[in-house]
Design a protein that fits this description.
109 residues; mainly alpha
Length: 109
């Protein structure tokens, strides 16, 4: 009986090890895919971009993209990139990381 208990505990320890190893691989793969976000080749216009286009910009996820479009719809077109600072969650530091990928093209009347 003692041998069975030893085998069971070794078997259980091995199972836990493999599960933790698999979990670590999944986390690494998920982190790698997020880190591989390819920035847009040309700057995105804050006044015409769709949520999908905004999400190409590093630092803009789905909820921030939606907030930008909602703000634009309620408040009118952006006058400058710095106007993004009124969006909840966009700090000066975050804005500086996004700035190279954003432009504001004045809307023609």
């Amino acid at each position: 009986m003692r041998r069975e208990n030893k085998f069971s505990s070794e078997h259980e320890a091995r199972r836990i090890f493999y599960l933790l190893f698999l979990f670590a691989i999944v986390l690494l793969a998920a982190g790698h895919s997020v880190a591989q976000k390819k920035p847009p080749s040309t700057p995105v216009d804050l006044n015409t971009a769709t949520p999908e286009q905004l999400q190409q910009v590093p630092g803009i996820g789905p909820s921030t993209a939606k907030a930008i479009v909602n703000f634009r719809r309620k408040s009118g077109p952006f006058q400058r990139v710095e106007d993004l600072l009124v969006i909840k969650g966009i700090s000066k530091a975050r804005l500086e990381k996004m700035r190279p990928y954003l432009i504001v093209v004045p809307l023609q009347k």
